[in-house]
Amino acid sequence: MNDIMARNNVKVIGEGDRTIIFAHGFGCDQSMWQYITPSFEKEFRIILFDYVGSGNSDLSAYTTEKYSQFSGYVQDVLDIIETLNLNNVIFVGHSVSSMIGMLASIERPDYFDKLIMVGPSPRYLNDGDYVGGFEKSDIIELLDMMEMNFTGWASFMAPLAMNHPDHPDLTEQLERSFISTNPVVAREFAEVTFLSDHREALLKSTVPTLIMQCSDDSIVPIVVGEYLHSHLKDSTFRLMEAKGHYPHISHPEETISLINEYLA
């Protein structure tokens, strides 16, 4: 048990009967939920964790073999749920974590009560009629940039992804988070994320799902949220006023209110 708690730097806070797991996105760690969790601590037990290679996780647990596909991350989420003996989990996943949570719920639907996806995408690459937002050449260029100049990549990517020029402090926070990630792990995680395709898995998902889509997101176009909504049964689609890809940082009030509304 301690191995898994240490491996993923698992923290348990809050005092409610129902359980929320907050799962961070690529290039981030559990601290990215700091503006959200205080609003849920009274009514929920909250589980926070870092994926291996992020935050204060145990980097020695990282192997390319395990984490070069989504199944490694999915297994870690299931390990945490089993270690803490959780059930009826409300899983809030940002970005790539939306799909990790969904795949975990397909494997063990009995563990999950609801999925809440913040800025999700089943596929980032354009494919025929499907608009994901990126061409393969864009992603290869991004991965090469990460390899050649990781700091440069972080300072290029952070303002694009945050999309909140009025608050440069938030962009700096995101850039610091990117830079604090191990560059080798970050590049491998980016590759797994941006080249993945989970469209076929959508039809296997049975857990009720809230899709929270930002109105102007440089990573995930609005049509992706609409695509998810039309392919996920029992899904609710909410287009946010928030811009950017990190509404839980840039627009915490709106994020909190939509989650509360859905859970009520």
Largest sheet: 7 strands, mixed
- Measured by DSSP, the beta-strand proportion falls in 5-15%
Q: Which word captures the global form?
A: globular
Question: What structural category characterises the helix and strand content?
Answer: alpha/beta
Total individual domains:
1
- N- to C-terminal separation? 33 Å
Mean pLDDT: 96
CATH architecture: 3-Layer(aba) Sandwich
Identify the quaternary structure here: single chain
By CATH, the topology is Rossmann fold
Please report the total strand number as a whole number: 7
CATH class: Alpha Beta
Helix content: 40-55%
Poorly predicted runs are none
How much is the radius of gyration in Å? 17 Å
- The side-by-side strand order for the widest beta sheet comes to 1-3-2-4-5-6-7
Order of helices and strands: HEEEHHEHEHHHHEHEHH
Family: Belongs to the AB hydrolase superfamily.
Organism: Paenibacillus antarcticus
Domain AB hydrolase-1: 19-252
Pfam family, one: Abhydrolase_1
